[in-house]
């Protein structure tokens, strides 16, 4: 069957690609656009490793079809740093050693960024609930939660 032509915006750049009807957005990002930051953990919407923003909404890209990105704005982990300058969340994850293997990290960062853009003064419980859809099998959650809380505090201070 003929492939679909998708026109979208990824991290601010106009992008076009061809994909099969059944290809997920995650597969399109990784296989068609070489954006391998979003990870495939479960392929069933349970782990959050594939998290991206689609028109400002946090989504599991394994549950979205590539064709659904047509005409929409996609934001991935590749767009989080500004050139060499890490996003404050990325910096705090490093400072707090909030990662080990790193498979879950892009998803946590995308999800945490979405939270802090809505609410830069979350309680720890709110952070834990917000990130409940992101699973980490090696770091444990405390360092990740500390990194997010610390970033939020800096944001409030205007750092
Ligand atoms: S790979 Fe998408 S939620 Fe796990
Ligand atoms: S750092 Fe390995 S799964 Fe989270």
List the helices and strands and how they pair.
Blueprint: E1 4-10, E2 13-19, H1 25-32, E3 51-54, E4 57-60, E5 73-75, H2 88-95, H3 105-118, H4 124-130, H5 142-157
Please tell me about this protein's structure.
- With 159 residues, the chain is an alpha+beta fold.
- The protein contains 5 helices and 5 strands; from the N terminus they run E-E-H-E-E-E-H-H-H-H.
- The chain has helices at residues 25-32, 88-95, 105-118, 124-130, 142-157, and strands at residues 4-10, 13-19, 51-54, 57-60, 73-75.
- The protein has a 5-stranded mixed beta sheet, sandwiched between helices.
- Helix 2 (88-95) packs across helix 5.
- The longest helix is centred in the last third of the chain and has 16 residues, at 142-157.
- It is globular and about 50 Å long.
- One FE2/S2 (inorganic) cluster binds at residues 99-104, 136-139.
- Residues 99-104, 136-139 line the site of one FE2/S2 (inorganic) cluster.
Terminal-residue CA separation: 52 Å
The coarse silhouette is globular
Sheet-strand content, in percent, reads: 15-25%
Numbering strands along the chain, what is their spatial order in the largest sheet?
Answer: 2-1-5-3-4
């Amino acid at each position: 069957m003929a492939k679909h032509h998708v026109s979208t915006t990824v991290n601010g750049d106009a992008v076009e690609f061809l994909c099969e009807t059944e290809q997920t957005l995650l597969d399109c990002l990784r296989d068609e656009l070489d954006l391998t930051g979003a990870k495939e953990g479960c392929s069933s919407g349970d782990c959050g490793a594939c998290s991206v923003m689609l028109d400002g909404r946090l989504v599991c890209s394994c549950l979205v079809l590539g064709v659904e990105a047509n005409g929409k704005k996609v934001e991935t982990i590749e767009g989080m740093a500004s050139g060499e300058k890490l996003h404050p969340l990325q910096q705090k994850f490093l400072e707090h050693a909030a990662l080990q293997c790193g498979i879950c990290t892009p998803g946590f960062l995308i999800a945490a960024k979405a939270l802090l853009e809505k609410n830069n003064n979350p309680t720890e419980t709110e952070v834990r609930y917000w990130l409940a859809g992101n699973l980490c099998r090696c770091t444990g959650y405390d360092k990740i939660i500390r990194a997010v809380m610390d970033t939020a505090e800096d944001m409030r201070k205007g750092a």
